[in-house]
């Protein structure tokens, strides 16, 4: 298969944390690495194949339950990191997500954060605006080098799937998360409002509560739907899906789309796929 | 010699946020406990089965999706049903303070929210064992 026939549609999902310059460098390093991999390893010809497209979400683990309004500032910094790093799209977390599902007010602030960065900050006026900064270039080089080290290591293991199966990738992530948390516990790493600058506070009273009745309502709607749809057609489409799943050359998407058009549910579709493929069992490493 | 305390860290429900659960599991292991971690997306049934099979003293439930009021008590009830309610259950995750009294009433003996130092969890285990 020709790499240029699909590489232009691949995209990535990154996280943005609080270390602004390091995060910008991380995104820049990712773009460099992708371009090199596509050009040199896969011999891509089209420039769009070498362009890294990516979505960013701000870092959930950076949100604190303490003094939750401080999270608005954290999310704003992370937003800037993503935009300065060249993200194509962005999900900003809400200030109260360490306390519960976000309220409408909190979600609005998260959205306004993006809009202020987009329309007021001016950082979108140039492409790669931090390029040429000594610190950014140095950090980008360092991260790129370390990522190549990882990529080579994963290659040595036998590829990414093998590296996940044997727990290598999870172990590296967990070790980093563990180190980070130990630094927080020891106070070596400051988290404002958590291990420094703490106050006596009460949790905000407006934490979102989801009404358990919503579940019953949804179950009712679902059983109503199952009565009203053409169940013969649904069964037929699900059988077609099963047959397609048994044929490794078949693309499942068109079959799934026709099943959905007959109002087959996500559960029914997934059950077929579970029966045919089994379920992923994560390899546990502590 | 006394038997080492055995702890099952488990994630019921559908959220995949396992950073906290894995941190707690490893930190408790480093503190000298025998720790078993279930992995994400477990049913209360599977958690109780593992707990009994592994003969644990504690189950630590981690949940960040908002379904704690539903799923934590289910684990308590199932343990009772299997005559294994000598196992102590504690919980953690994204849990509003206002939900904690209700959870305790239903048999979740302690709830640890974001920012809790690991020494607090260890102190709890030592006091409850």
Task: Note down, in words, how this protein is organized.
The complex is a heterodimer of chains A (286) and B (129). Chain A has 286 residues and is mainly α. Chain A has helices at 20-41, 47-50, 70-84, 104-119, 134-157, 160-165, 168-186, 213-228, 231-246, 252-261, 266-277; strands at 12-16, 54-58, 89-91. Chain A has two domains: 3-186, Methylmalonyl-CoA mutase (TIM Barrel, Alpha-Beta Barrel); 213-277. In chain A, strands 1-2-3 form a three-stranded parallel β-sheet. In chain A, helix 3 (70-84) runs parallel beside helix 4. The two termini of chain A are 39 Å apart. Chain B has a single domain (6-128), classed as Rossmann fold (3-Layer(aba) Sandwich), CATH 3.40.50.280. Chain B is 41% helix and 19% strand. Chain B has a five-stranded parallel β-sheet with strand order 2-1-3-4-5, sandwiched between helices. In chain B, strand 4, helix 4 (100-105) and strand 5 form a beta-alpha-beta unit. Chain B starts with 5 loop residues before the first strand and ends with a helix. Chains A and B meet through helix 7 of A and helix 1 of B.
Question: Short summary of the structure?
Answer:
Chain A is mostly helical and 286 residues long. Chain A folds into two domains: 3-186, Alpha-Beta Barrel (TIM Barrel), CATH 3.20.20; 213-277.
């Amino acid at each position: 298969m020709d790499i240029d026939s699909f590489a232009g549609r691949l995209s990535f999902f990154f996280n943005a944390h609080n270390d602004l310059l390091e995060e910008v460098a991380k995104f820049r390093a990712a773009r460099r690495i992708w371009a090199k991999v596509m050009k040199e390893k896969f011999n891509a010809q089209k420039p769009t194949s070498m362009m890294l497209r990516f979505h960013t979400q701000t870092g959930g683990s950076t949100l604190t339950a303490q003094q939750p309004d401080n999270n608005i500032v954290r999310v704003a910094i992370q937003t800037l990191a993503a935009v300065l790093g060249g993200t194509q799209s962005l999900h900003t977390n809400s200030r109260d997500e360490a306390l519960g599902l976000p309220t409408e007010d909190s979600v609005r602030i998260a959205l306004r954060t993006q809009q202020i960065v987009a329309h007021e900050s001016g950082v979108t006026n140039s492409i790669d605006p931090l390029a040429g900064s000594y610190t950014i270039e140095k950090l980008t080089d360092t991260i790129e080098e370390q990522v190549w080290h990882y990529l080579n290591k994963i290659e040595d293991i036998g590829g990414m799937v093998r590296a996940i199966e044997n727990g290598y990738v999870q172990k590296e992530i967990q070790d980093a998360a563990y180190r980070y948390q130990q630094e927080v516990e020891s106070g070596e790493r400051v988290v404002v409002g958590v291990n420094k600058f703490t106050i006596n506070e009460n949790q905000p009273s407006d934490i979102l509560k989801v009404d358990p009745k919503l579940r019953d309502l949804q179950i009712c709607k679902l059983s109503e739907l199952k009565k009203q749809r053409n169940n013969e057609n649904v069964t037929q489409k699900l059988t077609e899906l099963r047959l397609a799943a048994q044929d490794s050359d078949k693309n499942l998407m068109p079959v799934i789309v026709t099943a959905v058009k007959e109002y087959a549910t996500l559960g029914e579709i997934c059950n077929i796929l579970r029966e045919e493929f089994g379920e992923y069992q994560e390899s546990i490493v502590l | 010699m006394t038997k080492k305390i055995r702890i099952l860290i488990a994630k019921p429900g559908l959220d995949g946020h396992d950073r906290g659960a894995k941190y707690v599991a490893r930190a408790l292991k480093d503190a000298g406990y025998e720790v078993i971690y279930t992995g994400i997306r477990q049913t209360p049934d599977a958690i109780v089965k593992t707990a009994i099979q592994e003969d644990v003293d504690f189950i630590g439930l981690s949940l960040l999706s908002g379904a704690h009021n539903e799923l934590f008590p289910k684990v308590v009830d199932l343990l009772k049903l299997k005559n294994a309610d000598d196992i102590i259950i504690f919980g953690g995750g994204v849990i509003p303070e206002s939900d904690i009294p209700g959870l305790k009433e239903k048999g979740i003996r302690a709830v640890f929210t974001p920012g809790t130092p690991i020494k607090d969890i260890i102190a709890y285990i030592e006091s409850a064992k």
